[in-house]
Inverse folding.
């Protein structure tokens, strides 16, 4: 029996740092919502995957017409990202060895090449994999007054990106363990690491930007235009 591929996209956040009148995933770039851009990038790479979209229970901005997948379902998002992903894992009829890829809805610049590289690494490495980027800048350690107190060595430091991919049973065990130990994890890899596992780092493109602040919108539009060209 061949393993299924599941794509989980947490999209229940409010994106308060954007200061907009709606969650950031519903802001538009080139007349299409960020959510729609992200889903179309995922579908282009994995057209036969099964999508699980985590949305807020009272979300009234979402339009099902934006979903290009044949097989998809909506689940209710949780208070934290990890809660949304765990809700999705508990809602799907996945097999233990099925591959689950989680991607930020606010990363619409993801490329098919990076998605395929992550899929290959996560399929081959038992502890899963995540897209990441070696730290290129000098890293400073600040105190409470925002004064620079020390320069941290950047050797071996990476910026974690998404997507991140793991076998279903490993990811579910890791997130359930995080809930049980009341440990709030900011990405799936940190939950897996807490079990003593070591996911593989897959070097990703630097233009895999996460839309977080208002000035990210123009930058994202420029990146997407450049990629299309």
């Amino acid at each position: 029996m061949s393993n299924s591929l599941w794509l989980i996209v947490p999209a229940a956040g409010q994106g308060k740092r954007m200061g907009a009148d709606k969650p950031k995933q519903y802001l538009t770039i080139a007349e299409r919502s960020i959510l729609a851009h992200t889903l179309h990038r995922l579908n282009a790479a994995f057209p036969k995957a099964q999508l699980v979209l985590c949305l807020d229970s009272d979300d009234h901005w979402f339009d099902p017409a934006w979903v290009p997948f044949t097989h998809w379902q909506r689940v209710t998002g949780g208070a934290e990202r990890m809660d949304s992903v765990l809700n999705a894992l508990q809602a799907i009829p996945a097999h233990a060895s099925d591959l689950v890829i989680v991607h930020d809805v606010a990363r619409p610049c993801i490329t098919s090449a990076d998605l395929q590289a992550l899929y290959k690494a996560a399929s081959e490495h038992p502890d899963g994999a995540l897209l990441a980027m070696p730290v290129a800048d000098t890293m400073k350690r600040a105190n409470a007054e925002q004064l620079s107190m020390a320069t941290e060595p950047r050797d071996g430091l990476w910026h974690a990106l998404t997507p991140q991919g793991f076998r279903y049973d490993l990811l579910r065990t890791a997130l359930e363990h995080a809930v049980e130990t009341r440990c709030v994890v900011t990405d799936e890899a940190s939950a897996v690491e807490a079990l003593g596992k070591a996911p593989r780092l897959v070097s990703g493109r630097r233009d895999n930007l996460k839309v977080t602040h208002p000035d990210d919108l123009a930058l994202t539009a420029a990146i997407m235009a450049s990629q299309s060209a």
Observations:
- Residues 5-228 form a domain with the Spore Coat Polysaccharide Biosynthesis Protein SpsA; Chain A fold (CATH 3.90.550.10).
- The radius of gyration is 18 Å.
- Helices lie at 34-45, 81-91, 112-124, 168-180, 188-193, 216-228.
- The chain has six helices and eleven strands.
